Amino acid sequence: MLTLYDFKSSGNGYKVRLLLHQLRQPFIYLETNILKGESRTPQFLEMNPNGKVPTLALGDGRYLAESNAILLYLAEGTGFLPSDPWQRSKVHEWLFFEQYSHEPNIATPRFWKNYLQVGEYDERELKRRQQAGRDALGVMERHLRENEFFSSQYGVADIALYAYTHKAYEGGQTLSDFPAIETWLARVRAQPGHVTMEVV
Amino acid sequence: MLTLYDFKSSGNGYKVRLLLHQLRQPFIYLETNILKGESRTPQFLEMNPNGKVPTLALGDGRYLAESNAILLYLAEGTGFLPSDPWQRSKVHEWLFFEQYSHEPNIATPRFWKNYLQVGEYDERELKRRQQAGRDALGVMERHLRENEFFSSQYGVADIALYAYTHKAYEGGQTLSDFPAIETWLARVRAQPGHVTMEVV
Description:
The structure is a homodimer of 200-residue chains. With 200 residues, the first copy, chain A, is of the alpha+beta class.
């Protein structure tokens, strides 16, 4: 049985939970409170030396970290990941875009605003990231004006980008500026087996 | 013929150049000065809406961005990427680690120190990133104490992590604190077909 070490309000964790639900794959969920250092204990670092959730335990002593690496692992051989090599490369492109250009600028401002007090984060750095976040949403908007999904059909690239985009307003973004994204968010929510972030 | 839009001092670009040289794959190199906005022109954004180097043109109207997605594309079917699914997943894990935990904390401080004046970047943010960079190097060091490479043999995970690690001192890191990393850097440099960052 798979075990997912996760934190309920983590969008990176939500990606994995959403895919597991859509794959109808049973798993044990272990809440790991990152705010209390529970991903930095010696036991946790044995599983994932980088000390982050989500971390997936396969049950045979193997562990996999990095949400998008976990998505690729779980989706292999399913309709959530194209088998065509070029389409697969374009999925990889979006997954790296998500971790480099999107997540630090959409998710991190949300984390600061939800969990930190004013003064605990740098206001100039917040503004810089919010602008970079708008740029990333602009790249998504441009793609979604001409495409239904981030691959030829709904799959892991959509799951990865949905996780924090649908909560982007919590980090100060105005999604009504991005109508194609709003339509896509509804399209993702309408997929079979969709669950919200609160479902573990 | 492949065309690589790249910027000579970009470590992300160097990853792709290094792999292309080691694959003995000929390519056209087109220097794109990101400091002069050459990756933000309407023509460039047609190729890569995210406006970043490296961007690979396949020559048939297809383009691929994101250095690590390009590495996975070029390495498919070669010894630089394991065919075993689990080993491949661990390579993905390191590639996402590189873009999320390593690059913003090792490469960005280097960029600031090399190309910006004091006052153009936030000193507190620099310090925060340098500490996170040390943490990322610590994760690598822990792995390299027991492993020769980031996969069962030299490959794209090593290439991705080598690119900025070997220049980490330019961003304020002291690599002599990480002896296993220093040994690994030498091991990477000794691989057949290795070229330095200056070779295009």
